[in-house]
Amino acid sequence: MKRKFSKTYGRVNEDIELALEEHMIFVHYKRGNIEKSACLLKNENRPLKEYVDSFLKENNVSEELKTEVIEYLQDAKNLSGKQWSEFTDFLMKALSLHMVFAVTLAVSIFIGYKSGAYLDGRIDVYPLFTLIGLAGGLALGGYSVYAMAIKYFKPGSFLEKKEKKKQVAVTEPERKWQEIDVSLDEVRKAVRKFSDDLPKGVYRTILVNDDNSIDFTQLAHILNGIPSRKFYMSKETYDLFEEAENHIPVQMDMVQNAVDQYVKDNQKYPMLPFDPSKRVNYYQLLQDHYLKEHPDIQFYITDCDGLVTHIRPSEKRA
């Protein structure tokens, strides 16, 4: 018995597939590019949710998806009992109807036989009317059985081979948000609140479109509307920018990726020694092929985990 659960967070899908067998539970979890699978043996008489609980916690499954899985497992506990109950109810119904069918057919044949035999005895043409009576009784009984079978074993019964398609729930039409004027600070607060509500392992970059603009359809419920102008975000540093600075986040991401790779390979930052402003040394990055082109903007390395910024830091005084 298989069941799949799914949740969508922006452009990231979170899926869990469960397969319940008699002696084991197969679990497959996928979130973005992360995939985990486990085969859990049921060797104790414990609730099903206890077997998968550690797997859900270990992989930081979102609370919404975890709740759905646990509720399903709690319902599945009595599933076999429900199926057996349905089968026994059907069996009793079927046996009762089969007895009715048999009695109906037998009575019809008996009446036809007796009627034909009576006429043969009166007219003395045996076995003509006896055979006609048997045929008539058989036909009448067969028709009666057929009529009852159609009535009680119509499509939708337990024996139906093809399951009915599940009715698709009618979803409410997507809400149309009004345009609003917001400041950069209001957008920053909305992004932070959105990020706080995300499950572990899902990042605020799901808000960023390919051109680094922010997808405000995911923030509309926080802002109570869609901003009338565009805002932009760096996918690497999460810095926010207005329309006039839309060229900065693209170059910022390019430089940040180059700096991160350089640090990973060389265990030091690409900047000139004793440079008080900690400017990113583009010459070094270009020479070692970490950058393909020279950025138009000068970026600086901050003390915050090596993140870059386009704002020149104030030089420390001696």
TrEMBL record:
UniProt xrefs under Pfam families: ATPase_gene1 (PF09527), DUF3939 (PF13075)
Membrane spanning residue stretches: 90-113, 125-146
Designated name of the protein: DUF3939 domain-containing protein
Biological classification of the source: Bacteria, Bacillati, Bacillota, Bacilli, Bacillales
Keywords per UniProt: Membrane, Transmembrane, Transmembrane helix
Organism: Neobacillus notoginsengisoli
